[in-house]
Amino acid sequence: MENTLRFMLNQEILLLCCAAFGAGFVDSIVGGGGLIQLPAFMLILPQYPIVTLLGTNKLVSVTGTALSAYRFSRAIPYLRTVIIPAILAAFLFSFLGAYTVSVVKNEILKPLFMVLLFLFFLITIRNKSFGLMDHDPHVVIPVWKPFMIGAVLGFYDGFFGPGTGSFLIIAFVGLLGMTYVQGSAYAKIINLTTNLAALLLFAFKGTFLFQYALPMMVFNVLGAFLGVRLALLKGNEFVRGLLRGIVLLTILKLGYDVFMANQ
Q1: Which of 24, 103, 118, 235 could form a disulfide with 224 if both were Cys (CB 3.0 to 4.6 A apart)?
Q2: How far apart (Å, rounded) are the C-alpha atoms in residues 114 and 109?
Q3: H/E stretch holding 22
Q4: Phi-psi region for residue 83, left (φ > 0), alpha (ψ -120 to 50) or beta?
């Protein structure tokens, strides 16, 4: 009996580590790792409370996100006038979003964000230069723009969450005129901020499954390391193609959620 339980535990850890690697790889480039890792948690460990799975998922994800942010920072210089307002706003508003989710059902936001993602997908197809042209360094970016990005998407991540990394890249590319690689670099810093804020909340609300989280962290970091390396080597076309794929998957996921909620 003991050998059977040990075998089952090893199988669970192996499958979750594979999911963590894939999530770290995808999330480090365009976000959307939650589409891989969180469903894996829910499928493989259905016996645990959802708050425990969410907390453990964040604990694993934050390691890969931290590595991605560090790796990008060595290749992509961050403008303080952009990154600092965005960080402050994201941290504060992610708490507000997490509080609001206990009051307002997040199902009302799913159709809205599904439409927004679909519009972005159309823009990337119609506008061939979107996200491929570097930001003009002579154009000063007003502080309110990065603050607004951090506030809106920080709130979204605390309130709802799926696709936050992709939305951040879209915002930095579309509103600040960055390339996809630059947008991905900035998105990692903001995503790290909101993940840390969420971890603080989960530390009070739930427990972490360290027996699964610790080995998964290693694989999440490995996936993130490979993802950032490929993003920097392959450039904007590679990031744009992967972002399109993740956006489509997110649209399908949101559409499925909306459909099931109305059944």
Answers
A1: 24
A2: 9
A3: helix 2-30
A4: alpha
Alpha carbon distances (Å) from 61 to 121, 149, 219:
26, 21, 10
Residue 221: partners with Cβ closer than 8 Å, 6 or more residues away:
24, 63, 64, 67
Alpha carbon distance 25, 181 (integer Å): 15
Q: How many domains does the chain have?
A: 1
Extract the tokens encoding 215.
């080995």
Q: Report the chain's mean pLDDT, rounded to a whole number.
A: 80
Beta strands in 160-244 (DSSP E): none
Stretch (H or E) spanning 173: helix 164-176
Structural domain harbouring 135: 2-261
- Residue 71 is encoded by which pair of tokens? 């790796």
Ramachandran bin of 42, using left for φ above 0, alpha for ψ from -120 to 50, beta for the remaining angles: alpha
Q: How does pLDDT run across 17-48, given as a tens digit for each residue?
A: 999 999 999 888 887 787 788 888 888 888 88
Q: CB within 8 A of 14, min separation 6: which ones?
A: none
Top-confidence residue, 27 or 104: 27
Residue 235 has what DSSP assignment? -
Please tell me the predicted confidence (pLDDT) of residue 16.
94
What angle, rounded to 10 degrees, do the helices at 50-75 and 34-44 form?
150
- What gap in Å lies between CA 167 and CA 250, rounded to an integer? 11
Tokens, residue 74? 């060595």
CA dist., res. 204 & res. 40, Å (int): 24
pTM metric for this prediction: 0.80
How many whole angstroms separate alpha carbon 246 and alpha carbon 39?
Answer: 15
Residue type at 240 in one-letter notation:
R
Name the helix (H) or strand (E) containing 232. Answer: helix 210-234
